[in-house]
Amino acid sequence: MKTLLLSTMMGIMATPVFAQENPFTTDHKPNGQTLACLQAPTRDCAFTSALQTVIEEEFGVERAKVLVGVASSMIETGQKEQAVQTLMLALDEARTVNISFVTQEKIKEIVPLLARAGDMSGALALTDELQNEGIKDTVLAEVAEEAIGNGELADARVALGKMQNRSRAFWRELTLLARAPEAALTTVNVQDLDADIRALDRTDQRYRGIINLAVIADRKGNAELRDAYLAEADELFPGVVGIAARAEATALRARAMYDAGMDEALVRASYDLAVLHGERLRDGALLPDFARKVGPVEAALGNLDSAIARTEYFDDVDAKAGYLASLRANGAGDLVTAKMTEVLDEVEDVEDAYERDVIRLKLLNGALKNANLDLAANIVRAMEDDDNQALALARMAPLLN
Fold it and tell me: Which of 91, 132, 329, 372 has the fewest CB atoms in 10 Å of its CB?
């Protein structure tokens, strides 16, 4: 069914708009096919209704948006070849708008997904169209992360090698190496990285670098070298000056160990150190960033109440939604569901309808991360725009049978 509809959609969308007979959705209210699917959602109807919405949509930018969501879920459900086709279709739709900014924004979304689907050459080629060097570097860093997720260290390094900001590329590589498959790390020379880190001028940067070396050593199975680096980092830490600098350094330490999947005892010790220094922060502007680093670690260690309490550091509902979406419930799903439902209710107070849907999409990411189908369905039902609801429904597809 999905293959047939995708083929049909490609044929219809290749026809000039004035020749299409399909009615356009002009009122931008949830449409019949998505609402019908939400009555008894299945994976098939989620994809089908999303693609049908695309066929009936008048504007290329809206078509592209939904197609990107469909492609993302296709990747998650193992349909990588079809996902690449769908992403190319989304790119074509974005180009029809003939507004550079719009096309650039869609390229930012499409490139990492191409890499996730295994089309690294296509992803890297498309980054050449990005005009802003800072944005291009950000997208290349995301491509490198997707390559690591696929176990392709060489591809990740190719992407990092194209970044203009070499310092940023260096730190990104250190971070990604900590998550690379153990087999890929056999080609990594820790001594070369060690020399680069010791050449850094700032103590806080050397501390961060040595922590990353400890994580990489752990991933390579060298506990002795890991412990030596950790001991060296502890000796260096008194040279990290300032409450804010110490809170950030220890938060990055805990997060690096957590992201690398290190032994829980080591993660917990680093988390406790981060909380010790984080509790000394008095500048409210610094607390949200600290929460973003430490909150996911806190939740994973079973301190979900504390992680959720950090939501109070965020003033606006959009930032709250983004933070909550980063937390995994780990068996305490009711707590996350209750808080996300509370924030979902707060969304109603946001004045702009489109902005309300954007925030709901962030909450949806959290529901999907926690495989909470009931919460995800409630969020999708709350969507006000037909294309946003179709996008959200498509994103929910991997949770459905």
Answer: 132
Choose among 399, 397, 318: nearest CA to 69.
397
Q: Please count the CA atoms within 13 angstroms of the CA of 118 that sit on its side-chain side.
A: 10
Q: How far is CA 160 from the centre of its chain?
A: 18
Cβ contacts of residue 310 below 8 Å, gap of 6+? 287, 291, 294, 295, 298, 323
- Spatial neighbors of 200 by CB under 8 A, at least 6 apart, are 206, 209
Would you state the pLDDT for residue 17?
36
What's the CA gap between 337 and 374, in Å, rounded?
9
Q: How far apart are CA 328 and CA 313, in angstroms?
A: 19
Token pair 């060097």 in the structure block, residue: 133
Q: Which residue has the tokens 């995301």?
A: 142
Q: Please report which confidence band the pLDDT of residue 181 belongs to, taking 50, 70 and 90 as the band edges.
A: confident
CA atoms within 13 A on the CB side of 242: 8
Look up residue 398 and give its DSSP letter: G
Contact 236, 207 (CB under 8 A): yes
In angstroms, the CA 382 to CA 278 distance is: 36
CA distances from 319 to 189, 275, 289, 314, 389 (A): 39, 21, 11, 6, 21
pLDDT reported for residue 27:
62
Give 128's contacts (C-beta < 8 A, 6+ positions apart).
none
Compute the mean pLDDT over every residue in the chain, rounded to the nearest whole number: 91
Strands of 189-300, DSSP E:
none
Is 58's pLDDT higher than 80? Answer: yes
Given a contact cutoff of 8 angstroms between Cβ atoms, the answer to whether 293 and 252 are in contact is: yes
pLDDT band at 14 (very low <50, low <70, confident <90, very high): very low
The number of C-alpha atoms within 13 Å of 354 and in the hemisphere containing its C-beta is 3
Contact 115, 143 (CB under 8 A): yes
How far is 88 from 382, CA to CA, in rounded Å?
A: 29
